[in-house]
Amino acid sequence: MDLQSSIAITISFLIFSFSQAQNPQIFHGEFGPFNETYYGIFEVEQPATISNSALQITPDSINGNFTLANRSGRVLFNRSFILWEDGGVGGERVASFNSSFLINIFRVNNSEPGEGFAFLIAPDTELPENSHGQYLGLTNSTTDSNPSNGVVAIELDTVKQEFDPDDNHMGLNIHSVISRNTVSLVDLGIEIAPVGGKNHMVWVHYDGNSKIMEAYMAEEGKGKPATPALTAELNLKDHVRQKSYFGFAASTGSNFQLNCVLKWNLTVEMLSDPEANGSGRDKKKLIKICVGIGVALFSFLLIGVGSLVYYLHRKRAASDPKLLRALQSLPGMPREFQFKDLKKATNNFDEKHKLGQGGFGVVYKGMLPKENIQVAVKKFSRDNIKGQDDFLSELTVINRLRHKHLVRLLGWCHKNGMLLLVYDYMPNGSLDNHLFHEDEENTILGWNLRYKIISGVASALHYLHNEYDQTVVHRDLKASNIMLDSEFNARLGDFGLARALENEKTSYAELEGVPGTLGYIAPECFHTGKATRESDVYGFGAVVLEVVCGQRPWTKIGGFQFLVDWVWSLHREGRLLEAVDERLDHEYAADEAQRLLLLGLACSHPIANERPKTQAIFQIISGSVPAPPVPPFRPAFVWPAAAGGMDFDASSADTTPMTSGWTPQYISRESGGAERYTDSPVSPVG
């Protein structure tokens, strides 16, 4: 190995080590709509209940008015979090968190509301006695204003006390119901408990680095405001216990209201448990500092060495003998095409022959004159070493795959730095064009064709997962990667992200982010960076719902952010067939539609090991086994997953750093390059 390579590898290792040392683990939970299963996830302190698809923090009206007055309740997530670390070699650390929740605070019979609702951090899950009325379920006359109570809360107060600005305000409460910071919501056009009832979204963000707490509020559907309603400097370490709980509290007084939480998303930076780590914490911090110093010392080399490496690789790209040998030595390697033939076939890669473009390159239609056959030529866009890696990765996976529902690779070309792959041409284009781009050429797909296409994709996926000599995970299953031949048979294509797993491995880790396209990515992938057969099944479920419903997975419909949530709500209400694409005008087989919709929901299960295997999927589609049972409510996604819940070791999974404005990364090949995706239910700070 030459000096240049040694330096580059050393720098890369230092950067990677420093990044890994600095990346804390992240907890992320998405809760709701709520049902009885949540009694196993939350501590529900009576008279709080879970009913009517909501957390009823104070009693619901069905219990009678005489039970509504002068009550208080709490509902907290039943696991605690380490929210700060003592100063040591690495200094003090305070956890960041994001919380967003959809609430409905309803005044009964249009009476005056009372008393209030709060999002809280507490040292335990117990409800203080006599915490009704002005105490909001947070404190009582004995514990209020006592720093030892360890309570911090964001209140939404509907009764004016002598220390309040009005009867419609937000406040930051620290150990006391007398808010340290308050803001009237009147000027923001928000009424906490309006006559007739409205849902409101609340966002609470805390940055452990800047020690800033921000709270936002808006009517449902209006999106998060650009400016927080309340901003306050707050060092949580000074006010809450090291191990604390998140949740909600509320109370009523002589006037009463219903305090309902309809949905809740919680993201928390997970710090080390001092009881588990002991003195090892300071040692780890010292390692982080040393690694950071190492990176600083070597960083000045990056520009010079990086430029040199880039230049040398570009210079070699035109005729890289190592790449050529690698291509020629691949087992089962298809034929090598001459560049001049492909150039002629595509009319010098004329834009008029362009079929599509993705993150890896451009695909052109071509005609090989000698064979008199049409082909699709994929021209890789990156002529550097990364482009070669993409090229080899796709070739390594697909060159030996043989299945009637996979796009067939015909050959390759490497000339003058150009990297090209040649595939069978699919005359009917991609599935998404027929679903969403209607014109004279793309008519509405009938039901029989849709069912046939889904069956073909399932067959291809089963082959990749079980029948090929290595397990292959596709990692980017979506409608635009499903091609249709002359008879509208499905052909799964674009293996640019696919990986063949080594024997006895069940997942593939991607260091640069979460590969795939939003709407098709399984929720666990945002936390592990790993692709599995189960994550492929999740993408397949999104495709099934997309084909049956004629809507994209990220479609906002029926008041829901994603298609799967809308379909699940129809299933719960016994109206599942209303999800079928209305353009079919009821010309479909109801039993088949029911089967596919249930299958799509089962494949979209938030917990990976609850999704069906591809063998079962194929049997369900063929009708040889019944549709899978699907719960009426979409189960909660909780991370880290329960033990045994995944095929891979969650304890060693890659995680995404939690900083101000935490955003998990993913790599989208839909529009090319790396993009950032903000997890919509838990918006970033700022």
TrEMBL record:
Entry's transmembrane regions: 291-312
Signal peptide extent: 1-21
Lipid bilayer topology: Single-pass type I membrane protein
GO molecular function annotation: ATP binding; carbohydrate binding; protein kinase activity
Polar residues: bias regions: 652-668
Residue numbers binding ATP: 379
Residue intervals of the Protein kinase domain: 349-608
GO CC entries: membrane
Keywords per UniProt: ATP-binding, Kinase, Lectin, Membrane, Nucleotide-binding, Receptor, Serine/threonine-protein kinase, Signal, Transferase, Transmembrane, Transmembrane helix
SMART domains, A to Z: S_TKc (SM00220)
PROSITE patterns membership: PROTEIN_KINASE_ATP, PROTEIN_KINASE_DOM, PROTEIN_KINASE_ST
Subcellular location: Membrane
Main location: membrane
Sequence segments annotated as region (Disordered): 650-686
Family: In the C-terminal section; belongs to the protein kinase superfamily. Ser/Thr protein kinase family.
Protein name stated in the entry: Protein kinase domain-containing protein
